[in-house]
Specification:
Bound molecules: adenosine-5'-diphosphate, magnesium ion
CATH class: Alpha Beta
CATH topology: Rossmann fold
Helix content: 40-55%
Shape: globular
């Protein structure tokens, strides 16, 4: 079972897009996928056809309800969808940090540290799934830290703009701390996201980024990608010559997810 988190403490960089395309790609390969939405905005949940009144993720994490209470099948057309199970979010996820503080002594007894809760709960899920893919909110809060502790790999979509690249430092510092303390084998990949190669500033920033980090093939800024999400049609089901599919095929190949 491989756990992959898509993270960036900046919003609007394409996290939910990468999650959606990855989840559908894996499901289309016949893998059993658990999609976890840890963003209270619930965009991944909606894209996978799931909307719920109130998420029980906080209660599940602290051990008050079993995993069966938070699992929901994804909805949509196409055979691949049956391979996707979701743990959807709702705006109530915003109360997670408060609940963690209220349950502090209980958590210390059962998990040692709250950062470990998600890893412990996923281990309890056993081998029900081949892959777990986690979408995270745009901040360095409890959700993101727990996801990093629970994961084998983080994918970091990054836009080639100054403010987006500067924000990476904060995330990389957190990554290093988690690697040193809780998760020594954690790996990361930086994915240039929504790239417009016609803009010289973006080409220049991408060049700089590739000097500091090992970056993957880029995902271009394409209207087709927005349509993919709004029509709930993943790029893996589009024609081989479609640009979105070509970009993602190259990305999954570079990450050995194919
Ligand atoms: N490669 C792309 N080309 C065009 N639009 C994109 C691309 N990736 C994401 N988007 C759009 O950009 C917006 C932000 O993407 P999203 O995945 O929601 O970011 P995040 O989850 O990081 O906030 C969405 O409207 C999405 O449809
Ligand atoms: Mg998102």
């Amino acid at each position: 079972m491989e756990v992959i988190t898509v993270a960036n403490n900046k919003g609007g960089v394409g996290k939910t897009m990468q999650c959606y395309q990855l989840i559908c790609h894996l499901a289309n390969l016949g893998k059993k996928v658990l999609a976890i939405d840890l963003d209270s905005q619930g965009n991944l949940s909606t894209t996978l056809g799931v909307q719920i009144q109130r998420t029980l993720i906080p209660e599940w994490l602290i051990g008050d309800v079993p995993i069966s209470d938070v699992l929901v099948p994804a909805e949509g057309t196409g055979d691949y969808i049956k391979n996707i199970t979701m743990i959807p979010a709702s705006r109530h996820l915003a109360s997670l940090s408060k609940l963690l503080i209220l349950s502090e002594s209980e958590i210390r007894k059962n998990a040692g540290r709250k950062e470990r809760l998600l890893r412990i709960r996923l281990a309890e899920a056993g081998d029900l799934f081949d892959y777990i893919v986690i979408d995270t909110p745009p901040m360095l809060g409890d959700e993101l830290i727990m996801a990093l502790v629970a994961s084998n790999k983080i994918l970091i979509p990054t836009q080639a703009q100054d403010y987006s690249i500067d924000g990476l430092e904060e995330l990389m510092d957190t990554f290093e701390i988690i690697k040193e303390t809780e998760n020594p084998t954690l790996q990361f990949n930086i994915i240039p996201s929504m790239v417009n190669m016609r803009r010289s500033i973006e080409r220049q920033r991408l060049g700089e980024l590739s000097q500091s980090f090992n970056i993957t093939p880029a995902i271009r800024n394409l209207v087709q990608m927005q349509e993919s999400v709004s029509m709930q049609k993943p790029v893996c089901l589009m024609g081989n010559k479609t640009r979105g599919k070509m970009d993602y095929d190259a990305l999954w190949e570079s990450l050995n997810i194919n």
